[in-house]
Amino acid sequence: MTTFNDREKAFENMYAHDQEMQFRIQARRNRLLGEWAAVRMGLTPEETDAYAKAVVQADFEEAGDEDVIRKLLGDMTQAGVDIAEADVRAALEEQQVAARRQFIEAP
């Protein structure tokens, strides 16, 4: 029975680790996405940092990516940037790849 309990504990630990990594990758992706949008809106470096943090916070409003996409589209439209939702979704995917790569390549 001990072997079964050990395996169960190992799987639980692996699942918890995977969930934590997924959360970190998604938070990094959102930060990169915020930086991407800030460049297009012409924000200063200080404003860019604050905006990237705001995008990360926006992801906690509801499950999924729709809250982040809505925020970016609204903010960019308000800033006078002509951008389509498809462009934001494409950037989201690109930043997801970049964020995952950063975690894989991290020492």
Describe this structure in words.
This is Aldolase. The protein has 107 residues and is mostly helical. It has a domain at 33-105. It has helices at residues 2-41, 45-58, 66-78, 85-105. The longest helix has 40 residues, at 2-41. It is elongated, with a radius of gyration of 17 Å. The model has no long low-confidence stretch (mean pLDDT 90).
Short descriptors:
single chain; mainly alpha; 82% helix; ATPase_inh_sub_z; ATPase_inh_sub_z_sf; Aldolase
Largest sheet: none
Overall morphology: elongated
Oligomerization state: single chain
Q: How much is the average pLDDT? A: 90
Helical percent range? over 70%
How big is the Rg? 17 Å
Total beta strand runs: 0
SSE string: HHHH
Instruction: Identify low-pLDDT runs.
Output: none
Give me a quick take on this structure.
The longest helix has 40 residues, at 2-41.
Outline the secondary-structure elements.
Elements: H1 2-41, H2 45-58, H3 66-78, H4 85-105
Helix pairs in contact: 1-2, 1-4
